[in-house]
Design brief:
This protein is 81% helix and 0% strand. It has helices at 3-23, 31-59, 62-69, 72-83, 90-107. The two termini are 14 Å apart.
């Protein structure tokens, strides 16, 4: 497997985690401390996402890396369903399938 692909997937995962972690609250903690902790975590995830993204485009074709990076939308929807117990509708499922299929078509 090519390293650019691994970095592109990691970029998508970190981008998805950024959204999920931004939503997660810290209960019973002072609001200023909660904001500081959340900011540090989100910045770390965003930074990791960009580092992986730029490494992926350095190693691979931009036309293949970018669609894989955009899989973060699908990953975010799945993580929101699993960890935040958000609804996963038929419309969401169809959208995930279409994004996944479009990514596959663009990468192959």
């Amino acid at each position: 497997m090519n390293m650019w692909f691994i970095f592109a997937i990691l970029s998508a995962v970190f981008a998805a985690l950024t959204s999920i972690l931004a939503k997660v609250g810290i209960e019973g903690v002072d609001s200023n401390l909660a904001t500081a902790v959340r900011t540090v975590v989100v910045v770390a995830m965003t930074g990791a996402s960009w580092l992986c993204y730029y490494k992926a485009i350095q190693l691979g074709d931009v036309s293949k890396v970018v669609p894989i990076d955009k899989l973060s939308v699908v990953i975010t929807l799945i993580l929101a369903f699993v960890f935040l117990h958000e609804s996963f509708t038929v419309k969401s499922a169809i959208g995930c399938v279409l994004i996944g299929a479009g990514t596959l078509i663009m990468v192959l």
